[in-house]
Inverse folding.
């Protein structure tokens, strides 16, 4: 089976361009596309969440997938490497038109896959090194790293903080916590914990009948 794979993000014209490229490529080699897989979706979406994932599940030994360029498979090197590795495991071949890659189970494909893998490892190391250097520079400049002290428990970070006046008013009216929680669109236990952790704001209120 020969599959033509087309992926675009949104532009319909690009779909037609890719289809033309693949058809033109095949006609010059007396090849025929048995099945077209076309989808409009971001290449950053993991392949198993795309039609490409369904295609990779059903390909068999000797099948061929043709796409206009390698970036149609995915938008990052790690995802592309995973897809190519799966294809080689199934002894399915991937051809790209623009880069003229012929990725199958032969030695050239394995060498190219090794080069991709090495590039991915180098990229990971460079990202890690840049991150470490940036942190060291900030530390040398006297900048404190990590979460600001006490920020996790800062009451202003709570989504209930803007509703303090409403909560206080309803508590004064003797409204049960369950009803106040519904007004605030939170779980009753969430509201109870908020009141308990901010008891100084509500300590003058009689909460006996609201619990």
């Amino acid at each position: 089976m020969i599959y033509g794979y087309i992926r675009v993000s949104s532009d319909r014209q690009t779909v037609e361009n890719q289809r033309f490229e693949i058809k033109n490529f095949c006609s010059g080699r007396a090849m025929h596309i048995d099945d077209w897989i076309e989808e409009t979706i971001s290449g950053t979406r993991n392949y198993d969440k795309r039609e490409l994932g369904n295609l990779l599940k059903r390909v068999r030994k000797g099948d061929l997938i043709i796409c206009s360029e390698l970036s149609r498979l995915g938008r990052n090197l790690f995802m592309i490497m995973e897809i190519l590795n799966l294809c080689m495991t199934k002894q399915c071949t991937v051809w790209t038109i623009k880069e003229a890659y012929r990725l199958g189970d032969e030695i050239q494909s394995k060498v190219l896959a090794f080069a991709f893998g090495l590039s991915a490892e180098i990229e990971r190391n460079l990202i890690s090194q840049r991150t470490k250097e940036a942190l060291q520079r900030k530390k040398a400049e006297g900048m404190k790293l990590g979460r600001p002290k006490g920020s996790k428990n800062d009451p202003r970070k709570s989504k209930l903080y803007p509703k303090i006046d409403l909560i206080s008013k309803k508590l004064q009216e003797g409204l049960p916590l369950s009803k106040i929680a519904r007004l605030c669109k939170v779980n009753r236990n969430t509201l109870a914990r908020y009141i308990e952790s901010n008891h100084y704001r509500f300590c003058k209120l009689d909460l006996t009948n609201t619990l």
